[in-house]
Amino acid sequence: MFDLIIRQGKTIDHQKMDIGIKDGKILQVAPVINASAVHEYRLQENEFISAGWIDDHVHCFEEMTLYYDYPDEVGYKQGVTTVIDAGTTGAENIHRFYDLAQEAKTNVFALVNISKWGIVEQDELADLSKIKANLVSDIVEKFPNFIVGLKARMSKTVIGDNGITPLELAKEIQKANQGLPLMVHIGSAPPTLDAILNHMERGDVLTHCFNGKENGILDRGTQSIKSFVFDAYEKGIAFDIGHGTDSFNFDVAERALSENIKAASISTDIYIRNRTNGPVYDLATTMEKLAVVGYDWKEIIDKVTVAPALQFKLNKKGKIAVGYDADLTVFSFKEADKVLTDSNGNTRTTSIQIIPTKAVIGGEIFETEY
Ligand SMILES: [Zn+2]
Question: pTM of the predicted model, to two decimals?
Fold first, then answer.
């Protein structure tokens, strides 16, 4: 007897399946499951199913004032079953975030900011005494199932006069913690993008990859991708969208695609203000933006499921497969025009919208707010 059987699930690449769930795990995947369940949910003809959507760059610790939100507001209500908070908190305050995160229905993980209080101020890496390697190691050991990586924000307003030093310290901390995934935020120089990429290695995650700033991947003069960016891309640095208020530009994303540079993962950098007032709104809208740039829907779904799960070693998430967590997103497509706006006020119009209708988290079905 299953707890839940999802009937006539159809993936974006048109595989059809029943999914049997028990104790929060996927127990069977088959064309037809001949068994009964406490609950059954039958997909409608126009609905699709994927592994639960993972947004690997959000800010959802409500007790902060600069960047804050609530996990379920950016989670299941928007069809997102797992969020990764990207460094809102550091070693000194992440325990409080952990406590609140346990109350959410959405799965919540965190990248710990290398600065010990996280983003309490905009310049958290301007004072190197706030980077305490031993504090980070202690907290990583204390919350092994919550902290899935490290975060370092490497842009002018954050680092003060410290140049590349905070990133060098982040890499040392990473090495002292079994190579924990490291996400690096980029923005205005200093440091230059070239210097940042030189310090990053295979598997590290570069967020805000398609920002429209001078220090971004696009050379404003030649309108082509800067040559050193190809070396970084080929080295295996994962490019992450991290849309945010200031960090996604259609021209950059389109130019990158035309030169065969693609984002590895699609994320929002969402928090209450860019969720409420735009230009982010939700993960679905960010996915629509990559669709108008030219990504196909199959790869877009991969970039919010299997890709972020691999990047942050969420080993039981990101796939519809036996033994995996029963996290799923049900969605449909609507043919209707919608104007999409990037962080610099540029617009594109999509004629296809993606609408997440249900989120299944640990085998429990939640209605989204669409
Ligand atoms: Zn962020």
Answer: 0.98
